[in-house]
Amino acid sequence: MARNTRSPSGGPGLVANAGWIGSIARFWEKTYASDYLGLALLFAAYILLVFFVTPFHRMFFINNINIQYPHTLAERVPVRWGVFYGAIVPLIVLVLWLSLSRAAVHKFHVTILGLLISIFLTLFITDSIKNAVGRPRPDLIARCKPAPGTPKDVLVTVDICTETDHHTLHDGWRSFPSGHSSFAFSGLGFLALFFAGQMHVFRPRTDLSKALLAIGPLLGAALIAISRCEDYRHDVYDVTCGSILGMAIAYFSYRRYYPRLHSARCDEPYQSREAAFNEGFAKIKGDEESNRPGRGVESSDDEDIEDEDEGEAKDGAEPNLENDTRRNELEARTRTREVNSGIELATQGSETIMGINPGMKFRIFIEPGN
Known about the structure:
Blueprint lengths: L19 H11 L2 H20 L26 H22 L4 H29 L6 H5 L21 H5 L8 H20 L9 H23 L5 H20 L17 H6 L8 H4 L9 H16 L5 H13 L1 E14 L2 E16 L4
Helix pairs in contact: 2-4, 3-4, 3-7, 4-7, 4-9, 7-8, 7-9, 8-9, 12-13
């Protein structure tokens, strides 16, 4: 078989280069280096947000009852426990599940990588929105400690606050969205999706116990989100949006490595990038050989008929009825589809599963009923 040295864009790209540039390009295509680089950048960006960025300070009325709740020092779920429930617990459970099920190295790898990307992407996006929106928390007045004589019926700024603790004061403008909520759903939501895929909860007649196990992490995340309203750190709007954000990012990260939950193979991740890169198809009159864009692997029977027709046309002979019959039979029993990627076909039950392998244009023939 010819080796596929095309980039995902469909052209040869840099991977066909024989020098060191080609080596780097092939390494980039065959590994998850881009994912790890993105993960490192997300972590670095989050650290910068936490230590060097102050939020936008929205103006407020000091007699606004919506921001006059007490500042609770003893939180129901403090930050350290939020990290434990939202990140450490899902990580431990995933490692135990994958170890006990003797999962392949590739499955182990992409599952943990997907969880980490979900968590750090959520942290970065959540804090970016918090600082940009600058919505006051329900306990802002207790944090701010307005100076005596501050007018009550006019909009005031952060300048009237007397609180000297930098974090306590500025964190009062980071209400939207709820970070605890988004973080909890980014980790526990990813765990719930993993459970749902491993146990095929959307398969007909699935046991209720499996479905309950899959939604268990979501209940835990919801309780963490609700605790933020009980501590007067956020209102319902904040925790609802934070929960949706965290769950959306968890689903995005999960689907980068696993098929949809309705798939017959939802318990297995997509093919590894190295295997997809190394996999090739025999090319007959491919783009390089024929210099005709869009041509790939075709049926040899079809090509034989075309070659014979061309020979007869050159000789001035009458069209070969036998060839016409063969062509008609071929067209009657097949249907042709051209695609811009390599395709693997597998069958399970009555379903045909198509695995996409970016790399080359070709034509496949599928006989109906097979």
